[in-house]
Amino acid sequence: MKKYWVIISNEIQRQLVHRFFIISFTGGNFLELLAQLVLWSAIFQSTDIVKGYTSAEMMSYLVFGWIFRFLTTSYGYENLIYKDIQSGKLSNFIVKPISYLRYITADSIGRVVIACSVIVLQAVVWIIFLHDKLTVSLSVGTVLLLVAFLVLSYFIKFFLSVLIGVVGMWTTEVSGVSYLSNVIVKLLSGAYFPMDLLPAGFVAVSFWFPFVYIFFVPMQLLIGKIDLWQGVQGLGVMLLWLVILYLLIKVVWKVGLKKYESVGI
Amino acid sequence: MKKYYTVVKNELQRQLAFRLNLLSYRVGNLLEIVVQIIVWTVIFQKVDVVQGYARNEMISYVVFGWLFVFLTENYGLENIVEHNIFEGKVSEFLVKPISYLKYIFSFSLGRMSVALVSSIGMMLLVILFFRDQLIFNLDPVRALLLLGMVGAGLVLKIYFAVMIGMIAFWTQRIVGIDYSLGVFIKFFSGVYFPLVFLPPLALAICKALPFMYVFYVPTQLYLGKLSVGQGAWALVFELAWIVVMYFLTKLMWTRGLRKYEGVGI
Question: Helix or strand or coil: residue B192?
Fold first, then answer.
């Protein structure tokens, strides 16, 4: 177990050295949120409610959603895995007594620690500036539930990243699939805008997939559109999905490894 | 004989991977466009006008805007430049009688043409499908001006990409920087929303920058929110910006070369 702690602390140290890397994403992240806020402010000048969302609710959805999203992002991990596979670096792990999957999990946690601090800083600034335009429904229970959602959300997104990166065992090009899956996940998780803006049928379909739980459901909880009990149920379904994805990765990994060894380096 | 079969099979797989990659990009683009259209349709169910934009105008802004994006897109040229620099390939251009800038321009044009066919084909299908919600007003003069703007926009975007890529002279990698600068450029070119949504001060800043000519100005001209006269003046300004960008690029190139030590040959 201690070896994984070493990996985490190594990655944290690496990140501190490369903190410029993290900071360089900051400008883009900030502007993306600003763009959404400008857009919706303009829309709410012409109307008070859009499909049941008041201006304050929509702003909260966007701002807290942004915070939530970036606290749980794995910063394109699928690319790292893909590169490890393509470059043959994976072979190191087949001979060493350390599981590759556990390695990348520990490694990504190290990255997140640094990224989180940057996000939290920005979040504080945003909330101070916009506090009178936001609305939240918080209680001790909600906060605890949200923290749970954060952690599970991170792992689900991470597992998805791994699944896509593993595709690198079958194909030489992963950027298109990575882009497409990002779009689909963002759509089905409500990252672009609240899902219930779309026709009811679409919302129903999205609940078949795990993506709603990584964004939409926790946000609904935060702005008070669902209650605590519904939130807990959501968490339960999320845990189920986590298990499913984990098993899926194990299976795909085994199959992929056979193919990997046959290609050689 | 079997070895040739393997060669053929490999190349076929490579081509298939490439085609699938391209298809993934197109499907992803399509999803993004259709979703934007659906969201705006939902919003306009309740309101008639958002900041001076009626429904069909807004949807046209989205659809024709994307068309302009595809006509001028250079698909991550900044990363090619970045690689040229930190892999040391630019050294070739220090001894050859061929200008790196001219090389990059020709390279980019060749590279874009492959994607152009599929992206324009897809956009034509989108336009056909949504034709009832789009505005079609094109007289020969406007069309000519737009053509000029598209050409100029293409050139401007190449300059932006090259300048971003050249940051690699100083930082070796541009990973987060290209993302943030990319968002910055998209923000100020009106990709996220029509620039009139911004408060007057911000709008004034937009007008002082070259980015709006790449997206916002052509779409405004198309929608008839700019007169032909204003459009002609805008084109003149755009051409002036190309000259400015040319000199800025050359300046950055000379400065960058001084920093460049031929590392990585």
Answer: coil
